[in-house]
Design goal:
The chain is of the alpha+beta class. The protein has 33 helices and 22 strands. An 8-stranded antiparallel beta sheet has the order 12-22-13-14-18-19-20-21, with helices on both faces. Strands 8, 9, 10 and 11 form a 4-stranded antiparallel beta sheet that branches. It has a two-stranded antiparallel sheet with strand order 1-17. Helix 19 runs antiparallel to helix 22.
């Protein structure tokens, strides 16, 4: 669909957004924002709409006191039930959002106990961090003091916002989606525990384990590499929140920045706006670290040195950056919903054995690990032990000598005839006996001390083990992303070490981000617990103090930190304080459900797409089922497979030279501005392709190494453009589609010499919308149009969806590649008119793979349906 036709469709859609539902939900403003988000795809417009609608509906069905509005609730429910589908540009997936809202409102009306569960929420919440989450959830509403109405509105919004995956959390997102949609009582119980106590508790293997409210609701799209256009709504809102005036110069700089993250762009623009540099920040950090703003004491008064002008500007810059990044993130994210999901993610790494902790590995607690604290402590205890042993040996020798003297004196006494001599010998015997007894007592004392020392190492390590688990915890950190991921939403996140300071309030815990913090927290830990250590009576408290002092000194040596890093990296961890981990679905569910044995699984090691498809079609049961590939957890829905249809009018098409030129230009439209001309130039260096396979190879070669995911880009365009129609053929095809839909319309003014099936689909939607005059419908026109096109042979027929990817509005499905004719695994939108091949998963569907795909086949084990 050409740009002019696309723009007309958008204008037509905006004009049609009238009526009670559109006004109640503020859909016109939402549609304008979504349009600009699509033009500058930094943030996902679908997630923006899900968040916007969830918050909007929550605000409508709760009154100013946080009570249920019994007029708005049934009114909204009736409107959504009557017209749950929205016909508009790029709105194929919105049926998921409106379907979720409709289902939630229906349950809220029918199940009175649900409102009882929501009404339990009130202010105050457990700590300031929880208050921040409430404020972010309700952004842009200004909140001076968090009250009960705000807490309930945030809770309601988090339920009504359709959950989609952020980065790195698929193993938590998939079960979280099922809980949110099918078990709201459990969902609200979790939120109540988090907001009232700040944690979720579970009992695993007889041991209570608690996970605090996630220390972060993630960075969202802040870390996503993208090209920024001056019209990106989330970026504009963030810059305004950060106090940056959107001059023509600022907008130009946004265009010139190239590929980078939103976080870096905001940082750069705010620095420039406050006339600061990165060097200024580094210098202020250095001065702060060296405590260069000292207290000046003058007699009895204390005066604070006034911060420099630069220090004040840096402080103000930090506040503005925090406001800007929070605004950008909350533009598309429901903070409370995301915090709950990330809290669940920490259950994934529950380790009841401390030896499995990354912290244990980094510390080097085993005495055989060179450079670790185990070897150091062993040396500290072994030295006095050896000294004791040497003293025992010396005392034993002296005792033996005394005993020999005693025996000799006893013999001499017996042999002596003189009374005087015997008395003299008895006096000597008494002296030697006293000396022997004294030596024996000293030796026994040394033996007891040696035995105490011999057992003290294991006792000390055992006590440290226990205390370390009380004072430290490894929590899921969504901001900790792997450096390279083929698909941003599929990036693996990781786990970060936090120091608890012995406090129950998780908002007071310290996340550890670098080696300096790591060493500082360990120093504080060993110092704080010194007096809590149990020591045998044979050892003095001063001895433990000496060991602690020596240990703290050892921790501060460069050698310790270097060895700690080496030990962690040997087991493929980034550092002793953080590590990347994709997470395990089984582990998370077992911990979350208080279950000690694994859930029932069916698994397969598929060596081709056909094998995986056969496995899925043979699955019995209704689902939805939790499932995971070697790298991703998702939701398998058998009903989607059963609904798949195949047309008997499938077309095969050979692309001639003119068609090839058209398709090459359509590929260039998917590229950054600076890549388009070079791609077309390189493509035109090649001769006309003899086959579709050869043409596909030409396109991929012309993209070169500069463009990532080039196979996916090319195949996606070929998929949307197959079959390809001339302008005349396209007119006739659209008229035939409309006629099959019961509409007799004349089609005129088509753009371009050729149009693909996706263009036909969009034009048919636009004509239908103009004829109806209302985008809301009780009929799923998006699905009906595509099914009609398939029946008429106007689009790909061999397509079958089978699962929810967790990513935005994408599903997993199988597609016959239009160029190669191979069956492939793709991610597709709801009605499969757009998609991308899962190129980076090829290895998991090849003869080389040995890693299984697994299906948790007994849904009753992990999901309770609220019906």
């Amino acid at each position: 669909m050409g740009s002019v036709a696309s723009h007309r469709f958008q204008e037509l859609f905006l004009e049609s957004l009238k009526g009670p539902l559109a006004e109640l939900l503020d859909l016109r403003a939402q549609a304008i924002t979504s349009y600009f988000m699509d033009q500058s795809p930094v943030q996902d417009a679908f997630r923006y709409r899900a968040k916007h609608l969830g918050l909007r509906v929550a605000s409508l069905i709760l009154d100013e006191k946080g009570e249920l509005d019994h007029q708005s609730l049934p009114l909204l429910h009736r409107e959504l039930e009557k017209t749950p589908f929205l016909l508009g540009p790029g709105r194929e997936g919105d049926a998921l959002i409106y379907g979720h809202l409709q289902k939630c409102l229906h349950i809220l009306i029918e199940k009175k106990e649900l409102w009882v569960a929501i009404r339990k929420f009130s202010s105050p919440v457990c700590h300031k961090k929880a208050e921040e989450v409430i404020r972010e959830t309700l952004w842009p509403e200004p909140i001076r003091m968090v009250q009960t109405v705000h807490v309930r509105k945030a809770v309601m919004a988090s339920w009504l916002t359709l959950l989609r995956q952020g980065t790195g959390s698929c193993f938590a997102t998939a079960p979280a989606i099922l809980i949110q949609q099918n078990d709201p009582i459990r969902f609200f119980k979790d939120l109540y525990d988090l907001l009232s106590t700040g944690q979720l508790k579970r009992t695993i293997a007889g041991k209570e384990y608690s996970v605090p409210l996630s220390l972060s609701s993630g960075k969202g799209d802040l870390q996503k590499p993208a090209f920024f256009l001056e019209g990106a709504p989330g970026m504009i809102a963030a810059l305004e929140a950060g106090g940056v005036v959107l001059t023509a110069g600022v907008r130009q700089k946004m265009r010139e920045q190239g590929l980078q993250t939103a976080e870096r762009l905001l940082r750069s623009l705010l620095l420039e706006g406050m006339e600061l540099t990165e060097e200024d920040l580094q210098e202020e950090e250095r001065l702060l670290h060296l405590q260069m703003v000292p207290l000046l004491a003058r007699q009895t008064a204390i005066y604070y040195q006034k911060p420099t002008e630069r220090a004040q500007k840096v402080s103000e810059w930090k506040k503005r950056l925090a406001q800007a990044t929070t605004t950008f993130r909350t533009f598309t994210e429901c903070a409370l919903l995301r915090s709950w999901e990330y809290t669940l993610a920490s259950f994934c790494d529950v380790k009841t054995e401390f030896t499995r902790w990354n912290l244990y590995v980094g510390l080097g607690i085993h005495p055989d690990q060179k450079g670790g604290i185990g070897a150091f402590l062993y040396g500290q205890i072994d030295e006095p032990l050896q000294k004791c042993n040497r003293e025992i040996e010396r005392l034993s020798q002296e005792y033996g000598q005394e005993m020999e003297a005693i025996h000799a004196l006893e013999a001499m006494i017996r042999a002596s005839a003189s009374e005087m001599r015997r008395n003299q010998l008895k006096a000597e015997l008494m002296a030697h006996s006293v000396a022997a007894n004294s030596l024996l007592d000293l030796r026994n004392h040394q033996i007891a001390q040696a035995e105490a020392l011999a057992h003290f190492f294991s006792s000390l390590i055992e006590q440290y083990d226990q205390k370390l688990q009380e004072y430290f915890q490894e929590l899921f950190d969504p901001a900790l992303l792997e450096e390279e991921a083929p698909f941003f939403d599929d990036s693996s996140a990781g786990f970060r070490l936090v120091y608890k300071h012995g406090r129950l309030d998780a908002s007071q815990w310290t996340p550890i981000y670098n080696g300096e913090q790591y060493v500082d927290c360990l120093r504080e830990f060993f110092s704080n617990i010194e007096n809590d250590l149990l020591i045998p009576p044979q050892l003095e408290r001063g001895f433990v103090s000496e060991i602690t002092t020596a240990l703290i000194q050892f921790l501060q040596t460069p050698e310790f930190l270097a060895s700690a890093l080496h030990r962690s990296q040997e087991v493929r961890r980034k550092s002793p304080w953080d590590y990347i981990s994709g997470g395990t679905l089984q582990a998370l569910l077992m911990a979350y459900c208080n279950r000690e044995r694994p859930f029932t699984e069916l698994s397969i090691i598929p060596h081709s797409e056909e094998e995986l498809l056969r496995f899925l079609t043979s699955t019995k049961g209704e689902g939805p089922f939790l499932m995971h590939s070697p790298t991703h957890a998702f939701i398998f829905t058998p009903d989607l497979l059963r609904k798949a249809r195949e047309s008997h009018r499938q077309q095969s098409q050979k692309w001639d030279e003119l068609m090839q030129e058209h398709l090459a230009h359509r590929v260039s439209e998917k590229l950054p501005e600076e890549e388009k001309a070079l791609f077309i130039h390189l493509y035109r260096q090649k001769t006309s392709a003899e086959t579709n396979v050869q043409f596909r190879a030409y396109l991929i070669e012309a993209l070169g190494a500069r463009v990532k995911n080039k196979e996916a880009i090319v195949d996606s365009v070929l998929y949307e453009q197959t079959p390809l129609f001339s302008q005349l053929q396209a007119k006739k095809a659209i008229e035939e589609i409309l006629l099959a839909l019961g509409r007799q319309e004349k089609v005129e003014n088509l753009e371009g010499a050729f149009l693909g099936f996706f263009d036909l689909y969009q034009m048919t939607k636009a004509i239908l919308l103009k004829a109806m005059g209302n985008p809301f419908s009780s009929v799923d026109w998006d699905q009906i149009i595509v099914e009609t096109m398939r029946q008429l042979g106007f689009c790909q027929s061999h397509v079958c969806l089978f699962g929810d990817t967790n990513w935005s509005a994408w599903f997993f499905g199988f597609v016959v590649n239009p160029a190669t004719a191979h069956l492939e695994l793709w991610r597709l939108n709801r009605n499969a008119v757009q998609g991308f091949p899962m190129t980076d998963w090829k290895e998991w569907l090849s003869q080389k793979t040995s890693v299984p795909w697994a299906l948790l086949s007994e849904t009753a084990e992990y999901m309770e349906k609220f019906s």
